[in-house]
Design goal:
The protein is about 35% helix and about 20% strand. It is of the alpha+beta class and about 140 residues long. The protein has a 4-stranded antiparallel beta sheet, with helices on one face.
Amino acid sequence: MDTLYQDKLLALAKIARASTPLSHVDLTATLNNPVCGDRVTLSVALSGVVITDVFVAVKGCALCEAGAGLLASIALDKTCDDLISTGSDIADWLREPGTNTPVQGADALSPVRAIKNRHKCVLLAFSAASHLAPADDTLK
């Protein structure tokens, strides 16, 4: 299990922990993994359909933080559909040995490939992208 928490993976987790709340939120979603208790909130600011800023808040393990950190590191200038598609590509890559790394930085998640019950942890933030809904700015 020690190989799971290598430097690259922990660097992605640090990105999530360093994420700062947005002054304006267009879309937001919160998802839970009831099996392990992980919780991710994803908030984005948009210009049209393009993501201009992103915030991830994670209450969970380092693997969940790493997945959220990966999302945060690639989200700018993408669309929500891009994030959903990338999450699907990462899920396929985690399940199927021999496939190419779907996005820069995903190689840090390689140790998780062999531990199928942890895939949901690293994918939770990407799953949240498919649940994004208009934010109520009055709740800030």
